[in-house]
Write a structure and sequence with these properties.
The chain is of the alpha/beta class. It is globular. The chain has a seven-stranded mixed sheet. The N and C termini lie close together (about 5 Å). It has nine helices and seven strands; from the N terminus they run βαβαββαααααβαβαβ. The protein has a domain of about 150 residues: Metal-dependent hydrolases (TIM Barrel), CATH 3.20.20. Helix 1 packs parallel to helix 2, helix 3 packs antiparallel against helix 4 and helix 4 packs across helix 5.
């Protein structure tokens, strides 16, 4: 395996909450020098065929992926499924169910915004007019476009964040079920951005232990704009749990210059790469 390969195993297109189409994402990755890329849209694989064609056109190695929302001890957790079979019937059924959960949640949130004096019906229509599955990021963008808040961060701080007036708790499947689903689809389960969850150090260690016991393969050691201390801490968690490591920018938008596609994503030497045996 070439140690100098530029690898990014966590990206999003406009099939979920990214801004680029899958084809545009592949072109952007090629321009950034990325050689191996995973498309891991939230709870959908609908962009993978377009991504496959785009990757082939630019000489990229595409890793078919998905990012599935789940729960652990009432905490929302994200698990990446890499090297999945996107046509797996069980996976398809669960992703269809996830899509419906997202649609129901969005309708409830917009109804709550209506009670707050905002045009919830109009905002729902704006979100549903967008491609891909509805997310809170879509709703926040619609609120900015409608002049109801100045920035997306304000939408979350005032209305959409946990405990706020328009937030509706998600009803995702359990962590262990999602890991099993990914494995059944021939994939490798990776715990996304472990340092980002609002957990105590002890709870984070237990999350990693439970993830490993469920059949999880790796932790996303390098994720987005994580600081060096987060990388070191997650690498230590991976080593202790006997897990491999992954790297991903969690790229969504080329205008977010602080988190470019294929940024410096170097896995520490002390952690075995999850792509070992898959990429030569």
């Amino acid at each position: 395996m070439n140690p100098d390969l530029k690898i990014d195993l966590h990206t999003h297109s406009n099939r979920s909450d990214g801004t680029l189409t899958p084809a545009q994402l592949m072109a952007h990755a090629a321009a950034a020098g990325v050689e191996v890329i995973a498309l891991t849209d939230h709870d959908t694989v609908d962009g993978l065929e377009e991504a496959r064609q785009g990757a082939a056109a630019h000489g990229l190695c595409l890793v078919p992926g998905v990012e599935i929302s789940c729960t652990w001890r009432a905490q929302g957790i994200h698990v990446l499924g890499l090297w999945i079979d996107p046509g797996g019937p069980a996976l398809r059924r669960e992703l269809d169910a996830q899509a419906e959960r997202r649609r129901v949640r969005m309708r409830k949130m917009c109804a709550r915004l209506e009670k707050c004096g905002l045009p919830g019906t109009e905002l729902l229509a704006a979100v549903e007019a967008q491609p891909g599955l509805p997310t809170r990021a879509h709703l926040a963008s619609a609120m900015v476009a409608g002049g109801h808040v100045d920035r997306a961060e304000e939408a979350f701080r005032k209305y959409l964040g946990a405990g706020k007036s328009a937030n509706v708790a998600a009803e995702w499947p359990a962590l262990v079920a999602v890991v099993g689903l990914i494995r059944a689809a021939g994939g490798v389960a990776v715990l996304a951005h472990p340092a980002r969850y609002a957990l105590s150090a002890g709870a984070r260690r237990q999350l990693v232990a439970d993830f490993a016991a469920a059949g999880g393969a790796a932790l996303e050691v390098v994720s987005g704009a994580n600081a060096a201390q987060h990388v070191d801490a997650v690498a230590a968690l991976a080593r202790k749990a006997g897990l491999e490591g992954s790297v991903g920018s969690d790229f969504h938008n080329p205008q977010l210059t602080w988190n470019p596609l294929g940024r410096s994503l170097k896995l520490p030497d002390c952690v075995a790469p999850v792509w070992r045996g898959y990429i030569t």
